[in-house]
Amino acid sequence: MNEMARSASMTGWRVRRPGPIDGGPLDQVREPVPEPASDELLIRVLACGVCRTDLHVAEGDLPVHRAGVVPGHEVVGEVVAVGSAVGATGTDDRFAETFAVGDRVGIAWLRGTCGACKYCLRGSENLCPRSVYTGWDADGGYAEFATVPAAYALRLPEGYTDAETAPLLCAGIIGYRSLQRAQLPPGGRLGVYGFGGSAHIAAQVALARGAEVHVMTRDPAAQELALELGAASAQGAADPPPVQLDSAILFAPVGTLVLPALEALDRGGILAIAGIHLSDIPALNYQRHLFQEREIRSVTANTRTDAREFLALAGEHRIEVTTRGYSLGMADQALADLAHGRFTGAAVLVP
């Protein structure tokens, strides 16, 4: 660890009292810069996206995994120290890479898996029972410095600012996996329910692949953004789209929207639910909502393969990332604005 980081302290935010965001669940702290373990990198945070999952951690919608955790898992940073075992020969992790001080890297949600269970061995590491997550099980990027296991650090595409890159690391990656889970056929009709940070990126990926995209969201500004990005239509959150859908993705954490989304599906259509948290789903009517081989699928985190595939795609096809910038000192305000729908696109903290 270099002497600058070793001797320094840093500013960050910790979730001290999980509860409603307007009640102030986060405390701003000043504390020593963390020491990287032998297999970790120490990152100076350049930007950190504000994800709805951070809000779920802060408000207690997700159970506490680490008391007083630093949230944030859309982290763009510069390597300032490298653990002694990073890049060592003999590792059996196929994702292990050699990193150097000065490299620009990303930290995403998935932080660790066992590598030995049946899920890891079959390529479904996101289902690993011993998986751990940045900003939930370990401290994340709402701070000036953060650590990450080198095997879970990500190379970043060129052509994006730090603020534009940050939302790609969760909003983009999970949107990409949601598209995979929704199995949209070539040239198919996709419904997008909710149009925040993840949805506005996933819609662009679908459009780049030739899909016809229809957006359902309550926010007039988000409807306008959807049309500007190329959506064929944009209407209210529970309104029927003008055509039947081949696939749909529910990004809004609102269980009542599952019913209209299923009703909008054509025969054989698939609804993927992208969030880690969802309010209760009302009772389904089998004939109306599920018959004719309609399906509901959940989306559970992502694999590192998903992340690498999406970031490669982002490097090849320019994605317009709509951001709202906040200083690190305004992290609590950024989460409150997210909770109350005060902006479109994705919020990003810049230390």
Descriptive overview:
The chain is 25% helix and 26% strand. The protein has 351 residues and is of the alpha/beta class. The chain folds into two domains: 3-167 and 321-350, Medium-chain alcohol dehydrogenases, catalytic domain (Quinone Oxidoreductase, Chain A, domain 1, Alpha-Beta Complex); 173-298, Rossmann fold (3-Layer(aba) Sandwich). The strands form four sheets. Strands 3, 4, 5, 8, 9, 16 and 17 form a seven-stranded mixed beta sheet that branches. The chain has a six-stranded parallel beta sheet with strand order 12-11-10-13-14-15. It starts with a helix and ends with a strand.
Name the descriptors.
351 residues, alpha/beta, Quinone Oxidoreductase, Chain A, domain 1, Rossmann fold, 6-stranded parallel beta sheet, 11 helices, 25% helix, 26% strand
Count, helices: 11
Q: What is the CATH topology of the largest domain?
A: Quinone Oxidoreductase, Chain A, domain 1
Number of strands: 17
| First-to-last CA distance | 21 Å
Compose a concise summary of this entry.
By secondary structure, the chain is an alpha/beta fold. The chain contains 11 helices and 17 strands.
SSE layout:
Blueprint: H1 3-7, E1 9-15, E2 26-32, E3 40-50, H2 52-59, E4 75-82, E5 104-107, E6 110-112, H3 118-121, E7 132-133, E8 145-149, E9 153-155, H4 162-165, H5 171-182, E10 189-193, H6 197-208, E11 212-216, H7 220-229, E12 233-235, E13 245-250, H8 258-264, E14 265-273, H9 286-290, E15 295-298, H10 304-316, E16 323-327, H11 331-339, E17 346-350
Parallel strand pairs: 10-11, 10-13, 11-12, 13-14, 14-15, 16-17
Antiparallel strand pairs: 1-2, 3-4, 3-8, 3-17, 4-5, 5-9, 6-7
